[in-house]
Write a structure and sequence with these properties.
There is one protein chain. This protein has one domain: HUPs (Rossmann fold), CATH 3.40.50. 38% of the residues lie in helices and 11% in strands. The chain contains seven helices and five strands. The N and C termini lie far apart (44 Å).
C-alpha cells in the first residue's frame, strides 16, 4: 500500500506520517510551501522526518500563490502573528483562506499519479475548531470530490485519524510510535527559537506539559 502524507515538518504531520507507516503504508511525503514565514525551518524539519522514515519519495512543491492572495499573518509580513487568545470570537489571523482545500487537491493529484491508496492529512477538530477547512463536514465533502473527480479506476481514501483528537492525544500516540519531536517545528513566526506565544506554540507546549514532559525544541527565554 502507498499513501501520500502531507508533511509540513510540524508535530501533527510528523506523527501522522509515523502512524501511516505503522499501518503498513509506504510513504510518499508531500511538503507544500505556500509562502509561510517559517518555510525554511519547516522544510528542514520535513526533510529530517522523511529521511528517518525512509519514505519512497520526498516531494517539496511550491504553492506560493497563497502568499500572493494574502489575508493571513502566515503569508503576509505586514500582518503581525497574533498571540494565542482562547477568548477570541473570530478566526485567528493565522487562518490561510481555504488552504486545506488547495493542499488536498494537490495531494490528490500526486496520489493519483503514483497509484497511491490514501491521502493522510493531520486536521484536528478540537484545537482551533473554528478553522472551517478542518471540520469533519469539509473532509466528508472533499472525499466526495475525490470520488467524483478522479478516474473511474482510481480509489483514494482521505485519512484523517486525528480529527477527533486533542494535541495531547496526538503527542501520546507519537511517543509510542517513536516520533523524534526534537526534529519537528511548529512555531508560526520564528525559525531559530520558537516564539512560545502563537497558537501553534501554545497547543504544542500545553500537550507536553500535560504529559509532564518538556518540549525538546528551543524556545525564546528558556535556558
Amino acid at each position: 500500500m502507498k499513501a501520500v502524507c502531507l508533511l509540513s515538518g510540524g508535530m501533527d504531520s510528523s506523527t501522522l506520517a509515523y502512524l501511516a507507516r505503522s499501518r503498513g503504508y509506504d510513504i510518499l511525503a508531500l511538503h507544500l510551501n505556500y509562502g509561510q514565514r517559517t518555510e525554511t525551518r519547516e522544510l528542514r524539519a520535513a526533510r529530517a522526518i522523511a529521511a528517518g522514515l525512509g519514505v519512497l519519495e520526498f516531494l517539496p512543491v511550491s504553492v506560493e500563490y497563497l502568499r500572493l492572495f494574502g489575508r493571513s499573518s502566515l503569508t503576509d509580513p505586514s500582518l503581525k502573528v497574533e498571540r494565542f487568545d482562547p477568548e477570541r470570537p473570530e478566526l485567528p489571523n493565522t487562518y490561510v483562506p481555504f488552504r486545506n482545500g488547495n493542499l488536498l487537491a494537490i495531494a490528490t493529484s500526486y496520489a493519483e499519479s503514483r497509484d497511491a491508496d490514501a491521502v493522510f492529512i493531520g486536521v484536528q477538530a478540537l484545537d482551533y475548531s473554528g478553522y472551517p477547512d478542518c471540520r469533519p463536514q469539509f473532509i466528508e465533502a472533499f472525499q466526495r470530490a475525490i470520488d467524483l473527480g478522479t478516474a473511474d479506476t482510481t480509489s483514494i481514501h482521505l485519512e484523517t485519524p486525528f480529527i477527533g483528537l486533542s494535541k495531547t492525544d496526538i503527542l501520546r500516540l507519537g511517543l509510542k510510535l517513536g516520533v523524534p519531536y526534537d526534529l519537528t517545528w511548529s512555531c508560526y513566526q520564528a525559525e531559530d527559537e520558537a516564539c512560545g506565544s502563537c497558537g501553534s506554540c501554545h497547543f504544542r507546549q500545553a500537550a507536553f506539559a500535560e504529559l509532564g514532559l518538556e518540549d525538546p525544541i528551543p524556545y525564546r527565554g528558556r535556558s
